[in-house]
Amino acid sequence: MIILAKNAGFCFGVKRAVDAVETHIGENIVTLGPLIHNRDVVRSLEERGVACIERVEDAPEGATVVIRSHGAAPQVYDALKARGIAYIDATCPFVKRIHERVRAAAEAGQRVIIVGEKGHPEVIGTIGWAGSGAFVVNTEEEIAALPHIDEAVVVAQTTITQEKWEQFLAALESRVDHIIPFMSICSATQQRQKEAAEIAKIADTIIVVGGRQSSNTRKLYELCRKSCKNVYHIEHKSELLLAKMHLGDIIGIVAGASTPDSMIREVFDYMMENEKALQVEGEGIPSQETAASDMADIAAVPQMTEEVSVDKEPDVALDPTLKETVEATVDTTNEQDVSEATATDAEETAQAENNAPAKQDEKNEFLEGLEKVVRLKKGQIVKGNIVQITDEDVCVNIGYKSDGIIPKSELSIHDINPKDVYNVGDEIEAEVINLNDGEGNILLSRKRVEKKLNWIKIQQNVGTDILYKCVVKKAVKGGVTTKIEGYNAFIPASQLSLKYVEDLKQFEGQELEVTLIDADKKQERLVASHKTVLLKEKKEKEKALWESFKKGDRVKGVVKRLTDFGAFVDIGGVDGLLHVSDMAWVRVKHPSDVVSEGQEMELVILSVDPSKKKIALGYKQLLPKPWDLVPEKYHAGDIVRGKVVRIVPFGAFVQLEPTVDGLIHISQVSNRRLDKVEDELRIGDEVEAKVLEVNADKRKISLSRRALLPVEERPAKKANFEQEEDFHYELPPVQESTVSLADFFPKKDD
Ligand code: F3S
What we know:
- Helix content is about 30%, strand content about 25%.
- It is α/β, with parallel strands linked by helices and about 750 residues long.
């Protein structure tokens, strides 16, 4: 028995790209990279003038460049535009969807993780859209090597297996706090893999047809190997190892998305041709060369693809996820004429091998048998043109012997009047719900198609930012239930709020905006999240807030927390740091000396770094510097009090207030002659003095203690520094006034 997979051959995206090139054959076009992973197809295109270039720079003058279904990075489009090169973008829409998602993530400042092969063209293209911070992981070791990430949008190469996707999402939880999965495995790939796995479970031998460069073909091979021992990956029928197959074997044929139908057909036909040889257990097995030469005969028979063409079979919907392929599983034991002939009379079979016309008849018999298999099925999607509209139904010509009837009740998910929406001649897709409505017509439903399309759209929106409105129906265990677009939906408690929710009942009757985080196809049930919406809103608010902060702006804030090095101040949703050194112009031992928790204060923004989410705040910058007030506070002739803070050979510095010192020159210390200042003063002494001169610009205040003392009878001996004017000291420049004048002079014992 030979089982040919229904989902074999070109997928929607590859077919689209190949068709795009085929329509322009003969024009000056080139493909950027091999159009598909199939050498025969690429060679055939080359022979027909479609060259393959590796870089945009290699495009010949005046050529149109085709971007293949794998897609390309934005830099490629930029390069094409910069050079004025025309291009045809054949990027598969499913891949485009990934580009859009990762681009949106990158624009929102979200990290992107791509699960796939780094060197695969699709992944290379996706990286380009995902921004510079994107990671690609293909092994669990690579996941383990990731840095710790707060939040990441995770996408997959379209052809990875569901199993790998689930495994990797679980493994990523150890590195990423908040994973936003975007289910990007192509549904065509999923179906193909699922079917291949099912065939592999029952087959003795599996033949995987497709290019060795093709990632999805290699994955089919690996998948089949899990349940079948004899799996052969071939690119061409000549690689078939018939000797390894036996009479009675179930042989499955599966093929990758870049395998042309003609190649699958060649393999299928070759197997059919040689099944007789298998039955004699190797005695009559033809060599592969002989078998290949037989193909010349086979080529003369009608093509299998013709048998399932639109003339015989109604059109199927273009959407690959809706596409129901015709019955292509051919059990040759059902082909009574063929199997009986081959099983019962080996001699006759041998004659037939040497008799081309007889073989032709046999082939035709087989194809007739195949045609019988080709039929409408319940659930199949068909396409046709409307031939009649009444108030009650719509009659559709679906290219079959009977017309299709869509009753009004099956026309739409909405309540519509057929004549208001449709016109005679309109094309319409519908699902077969009954092969005979009692009057020989085929009963169709457009409503079911709309429902499926709606479901597909909804599935595509899973993991995206698309918002849905819903009203919470009921609080149940672990969450709440609701309806979204007519489907049952569940919002887990953890997805209702940014905080833990104690009472779920409070949500009953509330209208919420949600995004979709999962869709259960079997039960047509959705899982939604309101938390994603709240998180996004929070981020947007934060972003706007950060953008509103400018260096130099005055802001009001409330002190939230004190540390040894400063205070964190909430300035309206964002915490800024007020460093201890920016609290006052004087030295502050501990922030609690200046501010306290809960204190409201006005501050100035010293610097903003939105990328690191850091704001430095200043308080002292809004206060006058002590020396700025000196001219107002101190005047020549004033009597002041202060503490001796430093003694130097030429005098004593007296602190009048923090950071404001005055100097009593040695000649002004006493009314008697002094050899040294210490003969009269000690550090820490409280002294009274008269202000002789104030020079705020130079931050100098000259003081005299002597002026307040009674005049000594004996004139004071000239000190070492006889005249005050003899002494000049220059202050080193300082930016801030948190030091006092005395700090610039060494202590006596320094
Ligand atoms: Fe597109 Fe899926 Fe094919 S992503 S290229 S339809 S395998």
